[in-house]
Amino acid sequence: MKLLRIVRSMSPSSGGISTGIREMHQSLKDHGCIVKIVCLDDPNSPWSNDLDGDLICLGPVNNKYGYSKGLSNKICMIARDFDVAIIEGIWSYHSFACWRAFRRIDLPYFVYTHGMLDPWFKNNFPLKHLKKWIFWPWSDYRVLRDSVNVLFTTEQERLLARESFWLYKANECVTGYGISPPPDDIESQRDKFLTQFPYLRGKRIVLFLSRIHPKKGLDLLIDAFASIANSDQNLCLVIAGPDQIGFQSQLELKVQLAGITHQVHWLGMITGDLKWGAFRSAELFCLPSHQENFGVVVAEALACRVPVAISNPVNLSTDVLLSNAGIVHDDTSIGTKDALRRWLKMSSSQIETMVDNGFNLYSSRFKISAVVNNLISILHSTFSEDA
What we know:
This protein is an alpha/beta fold.
């Protein structure tokens, strides 16, 4: 099977979409698929040579919507050699350009919405939602309507997607989502992390690893951490992730006013062994998001046997709660504070049980091999390779 995936950007700092595509890529190839990825990044970008030459960069694009003259024709020329395609994400010109191209050559395609139909955006950004409504019937509504399936990572995401627009038509399908097993050189990863950040040795690390963005609930986590910081001076909040919109300065002021500057550390974006070392060194991973399509970082924490405290709007929170694999709380200041206090009161045996449950949940539901098997089965159901 020849599979084409099209996404706005493959920048490592763009979040879970690019991470998920990278995670699946080798596993899809191991299953005999020929896979190429088209993005709108600059061919000279630092990641343009990633994925062993399977990444095709058609940028650069210098406007917010991602409009590029002739993009539909370019995609059409590339897509003629493929059996099936997946459009990754909506609300960018690449999805509409793909719709135009695939209709022209009668190529079956699927759409991963990656949480972009979550009603949280409608409720919190009503003016932006109104603007989307103007374009919806003529653009992404058609993209979803004419796809073979609209793919969702969780059942929770699928149900929420129905609440954003009354004009909505999609053949829905839940594929799951996941990650590859973390590298197993645990001590080496931990040592590299603590060598890079020696002031964290001997500390009890509460880890936040994600984009620094208002929807991630980091302000709630700072307030919650401030409420427990005096209970143990070895406690520290480690915040790792890119600050794409300049939100960090507001949060730093909050930290300063709370009087916990010496216990909060900003690492910026970390990848590779440093990222895994952060997980290996943490006592608790927190993600108090107001909206989270799946939460790849949560799956990574579970795979590294780190206890997790996550909010209800993280779409895999239902799985975590039912499996007793972590602490699930409301995305409020009170809910986040209660979660940290609950963690501090847990016995070592309770934490060990929760960690074991979390790792078992990862192994059974979030390991990339199981997700890829499911996705391939869904893709194969649309055509015969002999046709």
